[in-house]
Each structure stands twice: as C-alpha cells, then as structure tokens.
Amino acid sequence: MKRASRVAALMMAGMVSLACHVHATAPQGRSVPEGVSVVQDGLTPSGAHPGKAVAATVKLRASECVTVRRVGVAVRDGLEKPLDYPGVAMNARICPGGFTFTTKPRAFRAGTYTQYAYYDDETGHHPLAKTKLRVVSKGRSVDPSAGRKLVWAEDFNSPFVWGRRWTRDASSAYEYGTHNPRYFKLDWLNPHNVRIAGGKAVFTARPGRRTLENGLQAWETGLITTERSREGFRLRPGHYIEVRVKLPTAVGAWPSVWTWIGDGHEIDVLEYHPDAPDLLEMVNHVREAANYHVIKPPGKGNWTRVGVLLGTRSADWYVDGALVFQDGRGVDPKWSAYLNVNLSISSGTHHPVPQTKDPITFSADYVRVFR
C-alpha cells in the first residue's frame, strides 16, 4: 500500500590501493587499550563501473601503536545485504604513522552501496566511517528502448478522457480509497488536483479541510492510475517503462511513479523526498531490493528521465541514460500490475511535513512503455 521510504539511511562510497603491515602468523591482536583511538584517513574508491572488478584501499591511523586481529572493508546494499570486499589484513599493526591495506578485487552490479573499513579485536567488531560506493555506467548514454517496440505511451498532449485510459478518484492501494494515513501520508485524493497544462500532467497538493483518522489535517492532492480504466493497461515482465518528470523542491512532497495490483506487486519506478534533495529512490517490493541514486538536486526547469527494465532475473533502473541500479531480483514471470503516477504528502513519520501552506506541484512530461 505504497509504503514509506524503504531505504532509510543509505549508502556512502569509496575505493582502494595498497601498502600494508601484516603478519602471516596466527591472530595475535589484542583489544585496543582504553583511550587509544583508531581513525580512518581514507577509503577508496568512491565509484566503479558495473561488472568491472575493483579493490578497496583503506588508510588507518592510531593515537599509539596497536595490533588488532584483522582489518577489512565491508559493503552493504540498500537492504543491508553484505557484499564485502574479499581479503583481510590479519594481525594488523596500526601506528600513528599510518597503516594502509588493499583488499582483493570484486565486481558489483550497478547501484549505490554503503562501504566502511572495520577492525576486529578481542572486544569485538568495530566499524569505522561509512562512505558511498556508486557503481554507475559511464560514457555514452544508453537507450534501453533501442530495438524495442513502443507498446503504450502517454504524452499528455490532449485533455484527459477520464475512465478510458486513466482514473483519478480512488486507488485500491489506499486503505480508504481516497486516503491512506496508515502508510504515512496526508493525502486525500481530489479529482480536480491533476490536470493537463502545456503538454504536461500537473499534480497539485494543497492543505485540505478534512481530518484523517489519525487526527492529522489532510492535504488534497492528485493521482492517476490505469486501475479500473476501460483500457486496463498493466505492466508485465519484459517491459521497459520510462518517465520524464519535474521533481518538486518543497519539503514534505512525496512524488511517485509506481505499480500496484495488490501487495507483492509494487515496483517503485521512482520516489523522491526533497528533504534529501540529492537522493532518488528506486525499490522492488516484489522481491525486495532497494537503492538510492545520487542526483543533482532539482531546480527551476530541471527535468529527470527515469526508466526501469522489468526482467525476471533483474530489474534495471536508468537515470538520464545511465544504468544506475541492477537489483538482481526482478519480477515473477507471471507478474503484472497497474501503473500509478501521483504526488503524496509526507505525514512527518519518516520525512518532514510541509513547511508551507502554499500549493506544491509535481509534473510528468510523458510515460512510455516498450517491449
């Protein structure tokens, strides 16, 4: 039911080179004495290309010389799955002059990961500063629609004919049809809060007069869905869906492009929260995978192009022509779901409520589906 942000505190990156002090004997490390600090002076790399193996290099320093059992570099994906670099430094002696260690290489799928160096001593496991590792395709932009047939398109160039392709009055993803306070939203759907203007679909949210079941004041806002339309369009495995959107800048806005036909069928093509202005969220709720992609914070006139190729082995996300996330999970071969585009308003649980009573807008230029 259009859950709140799945990936709460996310990813930080880095990558690596080499020089280390390691003993080949059995572990001799003891606990770091009280008052002695171990700090991380560097962790590289911060970026890589999908499928290309890289090694991490960490630089540590201690306030006085200590020997620890091991030093390594951990990596976590958006759902905290461990994908650590192979190789550790055993019996590592860390001194004020510094200690440098390079792992063995490994390759990653496209995505944004959290990475951090750690050391183990007799008192346990000690993670150090977290950074982001961004694994994104570079060079010429990719066109995932190339070689595929356009099977469904909405360019918002003509007035809506409600009920034919889209409906706008309610969604089965909302607990009460028109509103959904249990999932951290202030939304109350108003059919008049979505319109076509200048070849764009414009969603507007305003403070409303109704009170939600949890006692909070609702915001009237807009949603369009293919659910219950005469056309009844559904996305299916093998489809590539691409949207071009203008993201809002007002804190409290929660724009989304997503799929729904019931629990277990939700793919978030994109979600966005302006309180984290450089993070675009993409989530597979069908087989649970998640990612934040770092973007340039939206400004006046900025448009962002986001697409996802819905494979049965992996759902692959593209932003402005770059492959940014391969979830390695995909969807079930029999999966299908309706398409939704909307502007929600956060209730303050996971993201702040709006700091203004002024209208908030979100625009979509097109939605296109290829097979």
Keywords:
mainly beta, 371 residues, 25 strands, 10-stranded mixed sheet, 44% strand, 2 domains, Immunoglobulin-like, Jelly Rolls
Would you write up a description of this structure?
- It is a single chain.
- The chain is built from no helices and 25 strands.
- With 371 residues, it is mostly beta strands.
- Strands 9, 10, 11, 12, 13, 16, 21, 22, 23 and 25 form a ten-stranded mixed β-sheet that branches.
- It is elongated and about 70 Å long.
- It starts with 37 loop residues before the first strand and ends with a strand.
In CATH, the architecture of the largest domain is Sandwich
Q: How many separate helices?
A: 0
In total, the number of domains comes to 2
Reading off the top of the CATH hierarchy, the class of the largest domain is best stated as Mainly Beta
- The succession of helices and strands, N to C, reads EEEEEEEEEEEEEEEEEEEEEEEEE
Tell me the CATH topology of the largest domain.
Answer: Jelly Rolls
How many β strands by DSSP? Answer: 25
Cα Rg: 24 Å
Strand content bin:
35-45%
